[in-house]
């Protein structure tokens, strides 16, 4: 039982390059989330998917796109990376939107130069 | 937006000491989460509560809805408890799901052997 698997763990990009962060969960959870964590700030929601086939913007969606490929997978794409997107990214899932605990992936440390 | 304040920001204690970490928030909530972020970066959910008190092993979480305050206690602290502890609150509307979580910036706890 792997829980939430997130890849890659580390990535360095040059400004303008694109990449996709992958996330998969094997707990049959309905809701999935992408967060970024920056020094001195709490986790901030980028995008979320309340159920398969739906996605919605969070607090900081600019510069990102997402795909809920199926119930298991929720990917985050940076089309044209910028230094301001240097951060640690976390994927998380919950059984439902409301009364269930969050399960996090191990994070992706992204540096954009 | 709900403001979440955690105190202290940093806490160093001797092994065996009783630890208290505090979380205050500014507006009504429907649920509060306590999370633990390991030195390696992974995040684990410890508690989700909306009233009263929960206990798991040496960890106890309490919440006072009227005072808009929650505490996380660790009894008989151990070096393996060294981590960042994060509080997150969900807004008070019954329509709000986990996409409406506001995260604190965390309390860094170090337990010295």
Give an overview of the whole structure.
The complex is a heterodimer of chains A (113) and B (113). Chain A is mainly beta. Chain A has strands spanning 4-7, 10-13, 19-25, 31-37, 44-49, 56-57, 64-68, 74-78, 87-94, 103-104, 108-112. In chain A, strands 2, 4, 5, 6, 9, 10 and 11 form a seven-stranded mixed sheet that branches. In chain A, strands 1-3-8-7 form a four-stranded antiparallel sheet, with no helix packed on it. In chain A, a hairpin with a 5-residue loop joins strand 7 (64-68) and strand 8 (74-78). In chain B, strands 2, 4, 5, 9, 10 and 11 form a six-stranded mixed sheet that branches. In chain B, strands 1-3-8-7-6 form a five-stranded antiparallel sheet, with no helix packed on it. Chain B contains no helices and eleven strands. Chain B has strands spanning 4-7, 10-14, 19-25, 29-37, 43-49, 52-56, 59-64, 69-74, 83-91, 101-103, 107-112. Chain B starts with a strand and ends with a strand. Chain B is globular. By secondary structure, chain B is mainly beta. At the A-B interface, strand 5, strand 9 and strand 10 of A face strand 4, strand 5 and strand 10 of B.
Helix share, percent of chain B: under 10%
Taking all Cα atoms into account, the compactness measure Rg of chain B is: 14 Å
Number of helices of chain B: 0
Count the beta strands of chain A: 11
The fraction of residues assigned to DSSP E strands of chain B is over 45%
List unreliable stretches of 5+ residues of chain B. none
**Class by SSE composition of chain B:** mainly beta
Average pLDDT for all residues of chain B: 94
Taking the sheet with the most strands of chain A, its summary is: 7 strands, mixed
* Helix segment tally of chain A: 0
Let me know the number of strands of chain B. Answer: 11
Order of helices and strands of chain A: EEEEEEEEEEE
Shape of chain A: globular
Shape of chain B: globular
Mean pLDDT of chain A: 95
The oligomeric status of these chains comes to heterodimer
Structural class, judged by helices and strands of chain A?
A: mainly beta
Instruction: List low-pLDDT spans of chain A.
Output: none
Strand content of chain A: over 45%
H/E series of chain B: EEEEEEEEEEE
């Amino acid at each position: 039982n792997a829980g939430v698997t997130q890849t890659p763990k580390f990535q360095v990009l040059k400004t303008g390059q694109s990449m996709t962060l992958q996330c998969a969960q094997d707990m049959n959870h309905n809701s999935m989330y992408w967060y970024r964590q920056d020094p001195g700030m709490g986790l901030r929601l980028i995008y979320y998917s309340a159920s398969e086939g739906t996605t919605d913007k969070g607090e900081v969606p600019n510069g990102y796109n997402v795909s809920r490929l199926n119930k298991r997978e929720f990917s985050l794409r940076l089309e044209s990376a910028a230094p301001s997107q240097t951060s640690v990214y976390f994927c998380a899932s919950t059984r439902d939107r409301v009364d269930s605990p969050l399960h996090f992936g191990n994070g992706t440390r992204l540096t954009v130069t | 937006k709900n403001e979440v304040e955690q105190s202290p920001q940093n806490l160093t204690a001797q092994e065996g000491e009783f630890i208290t970490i505090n979380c205050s928030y500014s507006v009504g909530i429907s649920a509060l989460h306590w999370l633990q972020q390991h030195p390696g970066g992974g995040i684990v959910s410890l508690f989700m509560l909306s009233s009263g008190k929960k206990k798991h092993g040496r960890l106890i979480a309490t919440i006072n809805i009227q005072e808009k305050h929650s505490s996380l206690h660790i009894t008989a602290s151990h070096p393996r408890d060294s981590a960042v502890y994060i509080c997150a609150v969900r807004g008070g509307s019954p329509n709000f799901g986990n996409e409406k979580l506001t995260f604190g910036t965390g309390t860094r706890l170090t337990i010295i052997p």
